[in-house]
Amino acid sequence: MEQNVLESSSVTAYSLRKLIAHQERSIIMAPSILSANFMHLAEHVATVADAADVLHVDVMDGHFVPNLTIGPLVVKALAREAALPLDVHLMVSNPEEVIDWYSCAGAHGVTVHIEACTHANRIIQRLHEQGISAGIAINPATPICMLRDVLCDADLICVMSVNPGFGGQKFISSTLRRLEELTALCKELNARPLIEVDGGVDTTTAPAIVKAGANMLVAGSAVFGKADPETAVIAIRSSCTDVK
């Protein structure tokens, strides 16, 4: 039986963790709806309900990143229809002002970018007060050391392995070194957040990502860009089965 990475965490179990803690899986799969068919979104996300653990919801504002996607109304509809918990990734320039929109809409976890936060600890505290998992994301060119003072409080660290804004990008290989650095820093501080990687994740890149320290994988085009999204999720997870 695989070790449950959620049970091993020292961080208090908030909403997202509570909903997936019962699963006996060492790798958490989070398909990104950015690559789903928005004309048939409910039907498309339903195809991964049995194979995946979480739905990754990319919110972009056209300011922090050069793209515009969805807002709280879509998150509210997903929370009502989807069988999986929602991990809402805010790629926005004003996270302090909008986190309540998404917690009220039904997000189980909200992730904000360290680059956009004036008061990252305050955001984490605010989300925890609402019973919601708090994540911190970091862009490829931002030093990992910027995370030191939030690692013991955050439930999740999202390491971007592409520059955020668009799906289907190529995995940035230096992410592996950054994951190793992050893992070492977590060990030094005795911090145990989920370590998520977002960008360019597929059956080719996933094994090295997991070996470098990640335990949560976001995949968009490698899942919803396939004819059978459920099989694609299973294939990515299976590619990491023997990684040590």
Indicate how many domains the architecture comprises. Answer: 1
General shape: globular
Structural class by SSE content: alpha/beta
Q: Give the DSSP E fraction (strand runs of 2 or more residues).
A: 15-25%
CATH architecture: Alpha-Beta Barrel
Q: Whole-Å distance between the termini? A: 15 Å
| Count of distinct strands | 8
Q: Which CATH class applies here?
A: Alpha Beta
Averaged pLDDT, please? 90
Order of helices and strands: HEHEHEHEHEEHEHEHH
| Largest pleated sheet | 8 strands, parallel
Read across the widest sheet, the strand sequence of neighbours is: 1-8-7-6-5-4-3-2
Uncertain regions: pLDDT < 50 for 5+ in a row?
Answer: 1-13
Q: What is the helical fraction, as a range of percent?
A: 25-40%
Oligomeric assembly: single chain
| Rg measurement, Å | 16 Å
Q: Determine the number of helices (DSSP H or I, runs of at least 4 residues).
A: 9
Identify the CATH homologous superfamily: Aldolase class I
Kindly report the CATH topology.
TIM Barrel
